[in-house]
Specification:
One of its GO terms (molecular function) is oxidoreductase activity, acting on the CH-CH group of donors. This protein is an alpha+beta fold. The chain folds into three domains: 101 residues, no CATH class; 95 residues, Butyryl-CoA Dehydrogenase, subunit A, domain 2 (Beta Barrel); 143 residues, Butyryl-CoA Dehydrogenase, subunit A, domain 3, CATH 1.20.140.10. Strand 2 and strand 3 form a beta hairpin. Helix 6 runs antiparallel to helix 7.
């Protein structure tokens, strides 16, 4: 089914609200020049809508049309990502935090911007005892902006644990000095040091990484990658319509095929998640993420070859997406992800029944 036929009333409302903000700033999505104030205005509107965005694996109960809750969520993330990946990074983390807490039984939450910070490996790791957190967390996007953070740590038994921290309290030091990125430069990504800060433990040991929603959320990140990719590809559609030629048509055909296949896989995975919400669907979601990374890199390269240097130099929206997307897709883990896909594929092959000779048999 075409994406144009999958109606999402909430997305329509969000689009209308954001286009109103852009109109007040005399801008359009296709030529938006995002400044800090405009980002904050758009993010504020998105936060106001966030309690209406379906959680992953929520089926169709949150939407009035014949669209799954999971797909509705991904459509919103993809739309926001096409506008600006910095906003998408903040909003995806906010939504993921709310869904994590929902899955773990926490629904009565304080208002404001939330974030999930799960990167580990800092030499001064987070420690938690008697309601107090100390240590350092790296790769914290939106560090100076968020009101509440979820962050992981390892307890004395090396179990993964999750903490909830109010960021508006003393004892928190934010250091942006190590963030030298060009792509995703504006994400306010910092190293945050906590000194005996009040925090609350969330869920039992390993609940964060063992819950099925861990992988459902990982697919939401891929929706962000895909949304930005499709906006870049649409620049080639417009260029071809305005001035058609054979090589633009060839690149457009190549990209269109890759995007259409990937789009259909999003539909498939969304249906799997909503119809079998008790399963993580790790293999298909890892495959989805790998496919989106591949098509994103292909699109960046092919659109650049088709259009030349002009949009990189004269269109701020195109140039920013092209710079941000390669950094954002590095949330994929490349060869490690492919290794895990291979291992999970082998396990699945052992389980094939009903007379199939192999797992890819039609």
């Amino acid at each position: 089914m075409s994406i144009l036929n999958k109606k999402n009333p909430l997305l329509s409302d969000i689009k209308a609200s954001i286009e109103k903000i852009l109109g007040a700033n005399s801008q359009s999505i296709s030529a938006v020049t995002t400044i800090d104030k405009l980002r904050q205005d758009i993010l504020k509107v998105l936060i106001e809508y966030s309690d209406r965005v379906p959680h992953p694996a929520s089926g169709a109960k949150h939407v009035k049309e014949s669209i799954s809750g999971t797909l509705a969520r991904w459509q919103i993330l993809a739309y926001v990502s096409g506008i600006d990946l910095t906003i998408a990074k903040w909003f995806e983390s906010h939504l993921d935090s709310l869904s994590i807490l929902h899955e773990l039984g926490y629904d009565d939450l304080e208002q404001g911007l939330w974030a999930i910070w799960a990167a580990e490996g800092h030499p001064d790791p987070i420690h938690y005892k008697h309601g107090q957190a100390r240590g350092t967390k790296a790769w914290c996007s939106g560090a100076n902006m968020v009101d509440h953070a979820l962050m992981t740590y390892r307890d004395d038994n090396n179990h993964a644990q999750l903490l909830m921290v109010n960021m508006q309290q003393p004892g928190i030091k934010i250091d942006n000095s190590k963030w030298h990125a060009v792509g995703m430069q504006a994400t306010d990504t910092a190293t945050v040091q906590f000194s005996e800060v009040t925090a609350s433990s969330v869920g039992p040991a390993n609940a964060y990484i063992e819950r099925v929603g861990f992988w459902h959320g990982a697919a939401g990140v891929a929706a962000c990658w895909f949304g930005a990719t499709t906006y870049l590809a649409n620049y080639l559609v417009i260029a071809y319509q305005n001035k058609p030629n054979h090589y633009k048509a060839m690149y457009l055909g190549e990209i269109s095929t890759a995007l259409a296949v990937t789009q259909q896989y999003f539909y498939h995975v969304a249906d799997l998640i909503d119809n079998q919400p008790q399963l993580s669907h790790e293999l298909v979601i890892r495959q989805l993420r790998s496919q989106v990374e591949k098509v994103a890199r292909q699109t960046i390269e092919s659109v650049g070859q088709a259009l030349g240097a002009a949009p990189f130099c004269r269109n701020s929206h195109f140039a920013r997406l092209s710079a941000d997307l390669p950094v954002f897709i590095r949330q994929s883990h490349g060869a490690f992800d492919l290794e895990k896909i291979g291992e999970l594929t082998s396990v699945l092959a052992w389980e094939v029944t009903e007379g199939q000779s192999h797992i890819w048999q039609l």
